[in-house]
Write a structure and sequence with these properties.
The complex is a heterotrimer of chains A (about 500), B (about 160) and C (about 250). Chain A has about 500 residues and is an alpha+beta fold. Chain A is about 35% helix and about 25% strand. In chain A, the strands form four sheets. In chain A, strands 7, 8, 9, 11, 15, 16, 18 and 19 form an eight-stranded mixed sheet that branches. Chain A has a seven-stranded mixed sheet with strand order 1-2-3-4-5-13-12, sandwiched between helices. The longest helix of chain A has about 35 residues. Chain C folds into three domains: about 110 residues, no CATH class; about 50 residues, no CATH class; about 60 residues, no CATH class. The chains are: A alpha+beta (about 500), B alpha+beta (about 160), C mainly alpha (about 250). Chains A and B meet through helix 9, helix 11, helix 14 and helix 16 of A and helix 3 and strand 6 of B.
């Protein structure tokens, strides 16, 4: 790693606009392309402070700052365009969380990196709408929160309550949401409103270790812990009335349910297994990277192909997982209101994946290219008329679901043409951590947070008190800053703001 | 192992050692820092640190004993696989949460560990939920060996 | 001709499609039942089983019994012969009634009173001259009223008018209120990169129509999936013994 003084580092960082900065080649060694990151004034301060701190520690220490990680990704073989940092970027394993990068599928040297996807493969957000309004839900807010908590298994060591055996799992891995559909856990319309229609066709369960399957089986249909949650939210503000109405959101006060979860231990193990395999492949193929964490393999190598097939299986696992929780949520609501999910109009508005690598066609320098797009902590945001988005959103652009943190707002954005050209159709995914977990535990009092939730009139059910502190809004960047940056930079467009009234967490 | 009575397992486990680990700062994840008079103790303590993040170890009783074996090509890899095996012990059958680890065999030439794991099946009714560990990482992994003291730093992804 | 013969025999549906196997066979049965009566009622069973694979055999025998000439190869030719045969029987059975009916007398009768002969068409359009200038002018006026674009051939315009009326002015369609608010801004947003403005407009319209037809396909797919779900596969269930919730 290049070690310089902070003042010298700044020479490589150049402002492009009010909302974006360029990272010039040379900031790290071997950069094939430039880096870019999107921040507003508030987020900018955090980014530069992180860089300054890392200069002080002489490059020794726990982690690299986000800017350095963007630059290291820019040095990977086969990368095209730019290495892009989204406003919610923060330091992560290998790739920063909030980093996207695309690799040319036709370049034999191009790589695929599990670090560019993350451990929680196909972690994502699903939003269900209802025809209920805040006034319908407020009187039963606590009961409804408890009912959701009683239906969805959450937290460390929790097990799913949907009966599954090893053969069911194999089928689910191959079929994704088609499995859920076949078994009757979801509605036919749900599938339409998922990225990839809830199924990656290249999934191959035979490329997945027995260990991953053993970890996955008991956890299917569980929410997990960490930053995962299920929230009852109400529409707080509508910015784009027309697009919102296409999503079935008509007025402020309308009640929605947001589910944020991923592929659980299954995906974590698939990623772990792939990292071990790729360490060997890197030595064999003499792939040089700036950071050992950026373990990767050539896309066309056996390891690369195996990873993509196993990753797709984990992607399918995540869709089945979110679908199972959709089923449980519908049950909870139907019981509470003594009616059917149909009558509550509990349709899936959309389901996004924010930890995934996908093969997509993009126009680069006027030429159409087939790319492997890594999005880690970054959401696909395709513009109107893009062939990969559902027919219902052909005119509005793809809905982008941006989850907040415990007690803060969430947003629905839509994809834009500018986003497609500037960031390969990618935008932010959430708030992004600002404080470390340990620091959160030290500085934030559990009871204060609960008091804060009470003041905001938010019902909360949480499996682990420690988590409340780690996941407190203060530990994260301000999601409104993040979303406003994406909107102002034009890489996606604000559509709806949602505020929570009940939170279920691990 | 499963045939052993609880009394036998408890007797076999012996004393639960004092805590020689702590949790350090990292933006998104957690760094486990453990130490001991030798490599074996530092390894054992690091494993305990990981379990300590998942629940309150005070609530765990020793009822079962399971054995794990980890193999690798270097010492870092051995630590990684040692922790990965322990995580797997928790994540699938027998869903074991450990109160004590005892490394029976530590081969620093062939990089092999055989370890006895004492604890009980994780039970939501009994054990408070801590944080879920997604994976072990090589990120900033350090194994510092000095004659009088060994220290280990590992970042776990959560 | 076929139609006129059927009208004169008093067939309830003279427009019957004789290409359709079922209709054809029904027609044969009807002719035997109502007019020819070559068989006793109980002997007509073979002909009446129109869905039976044995029907063709019965039909062969029937033709033989009627002495239908073997040279007639196609079913249509055979049908025409059987029809004529039925008319001949009808005529000879009521010789007195029909003998006096010459074409002159009929024409006179038509003039003196409106007791139309049974051949007279009930469809008023049959008597229209579609090529007359008045007709064309009428079509053009209607097109103007309904905003149907101009085409040199007024019959094509008429086709378009028919579609507009059938699709947009039927009872169901008229129940749907006209959507309020702004129309979709078709000229905003990403275009189709056509240099010619008209082609660009047309492409944008086609793109919208494509979205609509995709929606229709998707809906049919969903309905099919739901039917399959109901038929065979689904039994969603949960088992709380497997895991613990709500502690």
């Amino acid at each position: 790693m290049v070690v310089r003084k902070y003042e010298d580092e700044l020479k490589y960082i150049e402002r492009i606009s009010d909302y974006s900065w360029r990272i010039k080649k040379g900031f790290q060694e071997n950069m094939n392309v430039e880096g870019i990151f999107y921040v507003n004034k508030n987020l900018e301060a955090l980014m530069f402070e992180e860089l300054r701190n890392s200069c002080r520690s002489d490059g020794i220490g726990g982690f690299l700052p986000g800017m350095k990680q963007i630059a290291n990704v820019a040095a990977l073989p086969g990368i095209v365009g730019k290495s892009v940092g989204l406003p919610d970027i923060h330091s992560g394993y290998g790739f920063a969380i909030g980093n996207m990068a695309a690799f040319d599928m036709n370049n034999p040297l191009s790589i695929v990196s599990p670090g560019g996807v993350g451990f929680d493969i196909n972690c994502g957000v699903r939003l269900l709408r209802t025809n209920l309004f805040e006034k319908d839900v407020r009187p039963v807010q606590e009961q409804l929160a408890q009912s959701l908590f009683d239906h969805i298994p959450v937290g460390v060591g929790s097990k799913g309550i949907i009966p599954m055996n090893a053969r069911d799992l194999e089928e689910a891995l191959e079929m994704g949401m088609d499995w859920s559909l076949r078994e009757g856990y979801v509605w036919a319309e749900d599938k339409e409103h998922c990225e990839e229609y809830g199924r990656m066709l290249n999934a191959d369960p035979s490329k997945v270790s027995v260990r991953a399957k053993k970890r996955g089986l008991p956890q299917l249909g569980t929410l997990g812990a960490g930053n995962h949650y299920a929230e009852i939210q109400v529409v707080d503000e509508i910015y784009d009335k027309w697009a919102a109405s296409k999503m079935g959101i008509e007025e402020t006060g309308q009640v929605c349910v947001m589910i944020h979860s991923g592929s659980r231990g299954f995906g974590h193990q698939v990623a772990t297994d792939a990292l071990v395999e790729m360490e060997k492949a890197m030595k064999r193929d003499k792939i040089e990277t700036n950071d050992r964490q950026l373990a990767c393999a050539r896309i066309n190598s056996e390891e690369g192909q195996n990873y993509l097939k196993a990753m797709a299986a984990a992607g399918n696992f995540a869709w089945v997982n979110r679908s199972s929780m959709t089923f449980l949520t519908r049950q909870a609501f139907a019981k509470q209101f003594n009616t059917t999910p149909d009558d509550l109009d509990m349709h899936v508005i959309y389901d996004v994946s924010h930890n995934i690598a996908k093969i997509e066609n993009h126009v680069v320098d006027g030429k159409e290219m087939k790319l492997l797009v890594h999005r880690k902590g970054s959401t696909r945001a395709f513009p109107p008329h893009h062939p990969s988005i559902p027919v219902d959103y052909q005119l509005t652009g793809q809905p982008v679901l941006v989850g907040g943190t415990m007690g803060t707002c969430s947003y629905i954005l839509t994809g834009t043409e500018k986003g497609l050209t500037e960031t390969f159709g990618s935008t932010c995914h959430g708030a992004g951590r600002a404080l470390s977990r340990a620091k959160s535990r030290r500085n934030i009092d559990y009871l204060d947070i609960l008091e804060q939730m009470k003041t905001k009139n938010i019902a909360i059910r949480v499996a682990s008190p420690k988590l409340v502190m780690e996941e407190a809004p203060e530990s994260y960047k301000n999601v409104t800053d993040v979303v406003d940056t994406c909107h102002s930079a034009g890489i996606s467009k604000k559509c709806v703001k949602l505020r929570p009234i009940a939170v279920i967490k691990g | 192992m499963a045939d052993d009575s609880i009394e036998e397992v408890v007797k076999d486990a012996g004393e639960v050692p004092e805590i020689k680990y702590e949790y350090l700062d990292h933006t998104a994840d957690v760094q486990l820092h453990s130490w001991g008079s030798n490599l074996t103790e530092a390894f054992e303590q690091n494993g305990m640190a990981m379990f300590g993040y998942m629940t309150e170890l005070d609530t765990v009783d020793i009822k079962e004993k399971h054995e794990i074996i980890a193999n690798a090509e270097d010492l870092d890899g051995l630590l990684y696989h040692f922790l990965d095996e322990l995580l797997f012990l928790f994540s699938a059958e027998p869903y074991l949460i450990c109160k004590k680890l005892r490394i029976e065999e530590f081969d620093t030439e062939a990089f092999k560990i055989r370890c006895s794991c004492f604890g009980e099946q994780f039970d939501l009714a009994k054990h408070p939920q801590g944080t879920e560990v997604k994976a072990i990482t090589y990120s900033a992994m350090q194994i510092v060996q000095k004659p009088e003291k060994c220290e280990i730093f590992v970042i776990i992804d959560i | 001709m076929l139609r006129n013969k059927l009208v004169s025999l008093g067939h309830p549906n003279p427009e019957v499609n004789t290409q359709d196997m079922k209709s054809f066979r029904n027609l044969i049965v009807w002719l035997e039942d109502q007019h020819i009566r070559n068989y006793k009622i109980e002997d007509r069973a073979g002909l009446r089983k129109i869905t039976s694979p044995e029907w063709s055999k019965a039909f062969e025998k029937y033709k033989e019994d009627l002495n239908c000439p073997k040279e007639l190869k196609t079913e249509l030719e055979q049908l025409k012969w059987i029809l004529s045969y039925a008319i001949k029987l009808e005529y000879s059975d009521n010789l007195d009634k029909y003998r006096s009916m010459t074409s002159e007398k009929i024409r006179e009768a038509e003039k003196s009173q409106s007791s139309a002969p049974s051949v007279k068409s009930v469809n008023p359009f049959d008597n229209l001259d579609f090529t007359s200038p008045q007709f064309e002018a009428g079509v053009r006026t209607l097109a103007l009223k309904l905003n149907v674009p101009h085409h040199p051939d007024h019959l094509i315009v008429l086709g378009a008018i028919s579609r507009v009326i059938k699709d947009n002015l039927n009872k169901e369609a008229l129940k749907i209120s006209i959507p309020e608010g702004k129309p979709f801004p078709i000229f905003d947003g990403q275009g189709m990169n056509q240099n010619d403005a008209d082609i660009e407009t047309a492409s944008r319209i086609l793109r919208l129509l494509q979205v609509q037809s995709l929606r229709e396909i998707q809906t049919v797919i969903n309905e099919t999936i739901v039917e399959c779900q109901d038929l065979i596969t689904t039994e969603p269930k949960t088992d709380t013994r497997l895991g613990k919730v709500g502690f």
